[in-house]
Amino acid sequence: MRLSAFTVTVSTPQLLIDITKLYRPFQHGEAEIKNSFETLLQDDSQTLFVTKFNDRHIGGLIMQHDATTLFLSCIAVRDITQQRGVGKYLIQQAIEQAKTQQLQTVTVIKSAQITAELSAFLIHQGFTEQDSALHFSC
User: Less crowded by CB within 10 Å, the N or C end of the chain?
Assistant: First the structure.
């Protein structure tokens, strides 16, 4: 089966299971993840963007945008699928979304979730580090 990336609009039982596994390292418990996920799907200002392979959601990030910039947060790839191009594909598809929306920049604000490893990965994908964020010019 082929790796795909898309915006989540509807919750499914499998998606909830996969999202729980994906974001477990960042949240304290499954109930917190489920509540955050349901809130996210109801929030029109944010979008959950995921990668899927063999009917499993294996990567994800949250997108928000203003008039010129697409902001990415909560970037994660399942640990068992890392080092296989999933993260690269996820970021490339998010950049394509920004270009489709005619945005000028993709930005990742540095936070506790942005590890040194993730920063290095994003720089390798063409992002530049400025102040407290990583930027990609479309």
Answer: N
